[in-house]
């Protein structure tokens, strides 16, 4: 699924983490022209990073303890500022799952980099949420089996009919099949009696 693209960054807060003041000033100026509020320093506190809506990081100077989150789990778009293109530094940035990269020689591409970074971040968060939901539902598979067995015994029907009733309940409640199973296990009212 393609994430919806964002094109307006007015009012967002960007933090620029780069040791060179000239780079920080240049990037701040370009971001301000796009309507972003900016902070630029080296190093920045974890609190300041946590308050940002987008983060620009010099990959040559970045390190694991810089971020207040686990590698690859940034809650905001992270853009790597590329200087030397050293393989080890690029590998570090990839390990941290940066959403986009901006070569310092291409500062004119700040806007398109922001668009790409926010799209990648939205897609990344969508995948994370989907994976968490799949894991949650897989953890409830035992409840699904128990609920079908309980419906069969309670209503005197076969497993196909019991599963059909459970699906109907899930659709009526606009919930996952596994959540409907948990509901059945916590409610002892027979299914046919609830439909009256």
Automatic annotation (TrEMBL):
SUPFAM superfamilies: CheY-like (SSF52172). Gene3D superfamilies: 3.40.50.2300. It holds the Pfam family AmiR_N. One of its GO terms (molecular function) is RNA binding. It comes from the Bacteria. Residues 122-185 form the ANTAR domain. InterPro entries: AmiR_N, ANTAR, CheY-like_superfamily. This is Transcriptional antiterminator. It comes from Thalassovita mangrovi. The lineage of its organism: Bacteria, Pseudomonadati, Pseudomonadota, Alphaproteobacteria, Rhodobacterales.
């Amino acid at each position: 699924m393609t994430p919806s693209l964002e094109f307006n960054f007015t009012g967002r807060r960007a933090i620029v983490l780069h040791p060179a003041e000239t780079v920080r000033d240049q990037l701040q100026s370009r971001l301000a022209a796009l309507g972003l509020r900016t902070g630029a320093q080296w190093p920045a506190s974890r609190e300041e990073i946590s308050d940002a809506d987008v983060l620009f990081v010099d990959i040559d100077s970045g390190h694991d303890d810089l971020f207040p989150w686990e590698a690859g789990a940034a809650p905001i778009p992270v853009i790597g500022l590329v200087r030397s293109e050293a393989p080890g530094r690029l590998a570090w940035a990839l390990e941290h799952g940066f959403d986009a990269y901006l070569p310092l020689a291409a500062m004119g591409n700040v806007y398109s980099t922001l668009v790409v970074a926010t799209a990648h971040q939205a897609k990344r968060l969508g995948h994370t949420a989907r994976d968490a939901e799949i894991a949650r539902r897989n953890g409830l598979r035992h409840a699904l089996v128990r609920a079908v067995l309980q419906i069969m015994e309670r209503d005197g029907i076969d497993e196909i009919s019991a599963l059909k009733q459970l699906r109907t309940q899930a659709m009526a409640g606009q919930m996952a099949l596994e959540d409907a199973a948990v509901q059945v296990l916590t409610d002892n009212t027979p299914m046919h009696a609830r439909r009256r």
